[in-house]
Automatic annotation (TrEMBL):
The keyword Transmembrane helix applies. Keywords: Membrane, Transmembrane, Transmembrane helix. The keyword Transmembrane applies. The chain crosses the membrane at residues 58-83, 95-120. This is Phage holin family protein.
Amino acid sequence: MVTLNNTASPAQQRATSKNPLASLLGDLTADASHLFRQEVALAKAEVGEKVSQAARHVAILFAGIFILCNGIIIAMAGLSYGIAQLFLLLGVGRLLANSMGFLFFGALIMASGIAASLYAKNKLMDGSLMPTRTVNQFK
């Protein structure tokens, strides 16, 4: 949530002068300057929110990639173990069942890693760092 200072504008703080036109022009420039500073502060806050959101999605993406790599390692270990046992035994036995367990578990881990990576990638692609609320105020 963005909070801005709710102080009085420079025009409200300025005492009235003897020349009303000069006072009005001074108030106009002071108010315009004050408004511009507030809009810049809002834009900074909004961009900060967008960057924070993108950083969260990048963290999820890296976590998904890490999980995917672990799944690949487990699947490769299971496949290697199964192939070695097939060549050693030339028959189906309990060792093949063990390797199939490694393969199933590795595939499950890879699927969850792929899902997390795709989720984070899609969120990053959908997001924009453009401060849309601030831009919409100027339209």
